[in-house]
From TrEMBL:
SUPFAM superfamilies named among the record's database cross-references: CBD9-like (SSF49344)
GO biological process: carbohydrate catabolic process
Limits of the Carbohydrate-binding domain: 23-211
Molecular functions (GO terms): carbohydrate binding; hydrolase activity, hydrolyzing O-glycosyl compounds
InterPro entries associated with the record: Carb-bd_dom_fam9
This protein's name: Carbohydrate-binding domain-containing protein
Lineage: Bacteria, Pseudomonadati, Bacteroidota, Bacteroidia, Marinilabiliales
One Pfam family recorded for the sequence: CBM9_2
UniProt source species: Labilibaculum euxinus
Length: 212
């Protein structure tokens, strides 16, 4: 899959909530169940934009159950109700994985594959601005929990790369939803992943993205 990431700099005038600007942007579904679909299945989508110096990312999740046990960065948040963003900038063998539970607790690392990874320091992770919101609601006739996670990634967060601007930059990426320790474990992807068992670290299955 391919994704063109809009530049919203022109929509910003003075003091403005960046995510208010994103409300009109397109929802991108995370709906590929490569390893079996649960019932009822979580409904997940994301919006993404940039202003040349910051990546703006919003997740919107509807599910029957949430779990949030981890509050310290670099804990195994994939076991909680979790959304993830993996990105490899063009020309780089290594990629970043950013994983967040519904509290906004982050596990972040960089490396060439699942096993060869270097954790990002908490001082780096703390530069990611995050905001979470959760409520009970009815959707499609079902009582569900709706949680939203809004994130701002300044370029300094990509600390193993020397990036001074995003305009025109290309990368590969994937976006995920999981919950390893939920009553109904699930592993959902934006770009399809062809593997016998759940594995989000297959860089060859990332989709192509471009920052406009």
């Amino acid at each position: 899959m391919e994704l063109k990431i809009p530049n919203i700099s022109a929509s910003m005038n003075g003091e403005v909530d960046l995510f208010e600007v994103m409300k009109s942007l397109e929802d991108n579904p995370i709906d590929r169940f490569s390893w079996g679909k649960v019932d009822p299945a979580p409904m997940v989508c994301f919006k993404i934009a940039h202003n040349n110096k910051t990546i703006l990312l919003q997740y919107d999740i509807w599910e029957t159950e949430t779990l949030a046990r981890y509050s310290n960065h670099n804990a195994p948040v994939c076991k909680d109700s979790c959304v993830e963003f993996f990105i490899a900038f063009e020309g780089e063998q290594n990629y970043y994985n950013f994983e967040f539970n519904c509290l906004g607790t982050c596990h972040a690392a960089w490396g060439s594959d699942r096993n060869n990874r270097q954790l990002l320091k908490s001082t780096i992770i703390n530069q990611i601005q995050e905001h979470t919101k959760m409520q009970r609601a009815i959707k499609n006739g079902l009582p569900l929990i709706n949680w939203q996670l809004s994130l701002q990634f300044p370029l300094n967060v990509f600390s193993f790369d020397d990036i001074d601007g995003l305009i025109g930059k290309k990368a590969t990426a994937n976006f995920y939803k999981c919950g390893d320790d939920l009553c109904q474990p699930h592993f959902i992807t934006w770009n399809p992943v062809k593997a016998e068992k759940p594995d989000f670290h297959l860089k060859s299955h990332f989709g192509r993205i471009e920052f406009l």
